[in-house]
Design goal:
5 helices, single chain
Length: about 90
Protein backbone atom coordinates (compact mmCIF):
# COMPACT_ATOMS: atom_id res chain seq x y z
CA UNK A 1 0.00 0.00 0.00
CA UNK A 2 2.90 2.37 0.74
CA UNK A 3 4.31 1.81 -2.74
CA UNK A 4 0.93 2.50 -4.34
CA UNK A 5 0.40 5.69 -2.34
CA UNK A 6 3.95 6.92 -3.02
CA UNK A 7 3.84 6.23 -6.77
CA UNK A 8 0.12 6.82 -7.33
CA UNK A 9 -0.32 3.43 -8.97
CA UNK A 10 1.40 0.07 -9.26
CA UNK A 11 1.20 -2.48 -12.10
CA UNK A 12 0.61 -6.10 -11.14
CA UNK A 13 1.56 -8.82 -13.66
CA UNK A 14 -1.24 -11.17 -14.70
CA UNK A 15 0.31 -14.21 -13.02
CA UNK A 16 1.08 -12.52 -9.66
CA UNK A 17 -1.75 -14.14 -7.72
CA UNK A 18 -0.41 -13.33 -4.24
CA UNK A 19 -0.28 -9.59 -4.92
CA UNK A 20 -3.72 -9.70 -6.52
CA UNK A 21 -5.15 -11.38 -3.42
CA UNK A 22 -3.67 -8.65 -1.20
CA UNK A 23 -4.90 -5.90 -3.54
CA UNK A 24 -8.38 -7.42 -3.44
CA UNK A 25 -8.37 -7.23 0.36
CA UNK A 26 -7.24 -3.61 0.26
CA UNK A 27 -9.93 -2.65 -2.26
CA UNK A 28 -12.68 -4.16 -0.11
CA UNK A 29 -11.78 -1.65 2.61
CA UNK A 30 -11.39 1.23 0.15
CA UNK A 31 -7.63 1.68 0.47
CA UNK A 32 -6.96 1.11 -3.25
CA UNK A 33 -8.87 0.74 -6.52
CA UNK A 34 -8.15 -1.92 -9.12
CA UNK A 35 -8.16 -1.53 -12.88
CA UNK A 36 -7.90 -4.62 -15.07
CA UNK A 37 -5.84 -3.91 -18.19
CA UNK A 38 -7.67 -5.18 -21.27
CA UNK A 39 -6.03 -6.70 -24.37
CA UNK A 40 -6.34 -3.36 -26.22
CA UNK A 41 -4.55 -1.51 -23.40
CA UNK A 42 -7.61 0.15 -21.90
CA UNK A 43 -8.34 -0.15 -18.20
CA UNK A 44 -11.59 -1.38 -16.69
CA UNK A 45 -12.32 -0.60 -13.03
CA UNK A 46 -13.09 -3.72 -11.01
CA UNK A 47 -15.61 -3.71 -8.21
CA UNK A 48 -14.44 -5.56 -5.08
CA UNK A 49 -16.83 -8.42 -5.87
CA UNK A 50 -15.30 -8.77 -9.34
CA UNK A 51 -11.74 -8.60 -8.05
CA UNK A 52 -12.32 -11.55 -5.72
CA UNK A 53 -13.20 -13.73 -8.72
CA UNK A 54 -10.77 -12.24 -11.23
CA UNK A 55 -8.48 -14.60 -13.05
CA UNK A 56 -4.78 -14.34 -13.75
CA UNK A 57 -5.52 -13.81 -17.44
CA UNK A 58 -4.93 -10.04 -17.38
CA UNK A 59 -2.61 -7.66 -15.55
CA UNK A 60 -3.96 -5.13 -13.05
CA UNK A 61 -3.08 -1.62 -12.03
CA UNK A 62 -3.81 -0.71 -8.44
CA UNK A 63 -4.13 2.95 -7.55
CA UNK A 64 -4.77 5.24 -4.66
CA UNK A 65 -8.49 6.07 -4.61
CA UNK A 66 -9.59 9.56 -5.51
CA UNK A 67 -10.50 11.88 -2.66
CA UNK A 68 -14.22 11.29 -3.16
CA UNK A 69 -13.73 7.74 -1.85
CA UNK A 70 -11.79 8.93 1.16
CA UNK A 71 -14.26 11.50 2.51
CA UNK A 72 -16.20 10.36 5.59
CA UNK A 73 -19.45 11.87 4.25
CA UNK A 74 -19.33 9.57 1.21
CA UNK A 75 -20.01 6.52 3.39
CA UNK A 76 -23.56 5.44 4.13
CA UNK A 77 -24.55 6.05 7.76
CA UNK A 78 -24.23 2.38 8.68
CA UNK A 79 -20.70 2.13 7.24
CA UNK A 80 -19.70 5.46 8.76
CA UNK A 81 -20.60 4.06 12.16
CA UNK A 82 -18.35 1.05 11.53
CA UNK A 83 -15.36 3.17 10.53
CA UNK A 84 -15.88 6.16 12.83
CA UNK A 85 -12.77 7.76 14.26
CA UNK A 86 -12.30 10.28 17.04
CA UNK A 87 -11.36 13.69 15.67
CA UNK A 88 -8.92 15.69 17.77
Amino acid sequence: MDAVYAAGSLPIPAEDRATKVMATRLTIFGFVVIDEIQADGTARRLRPSEAIHASTARPWRISKPTSRYMVDDSLPASDRDLFAVQHA
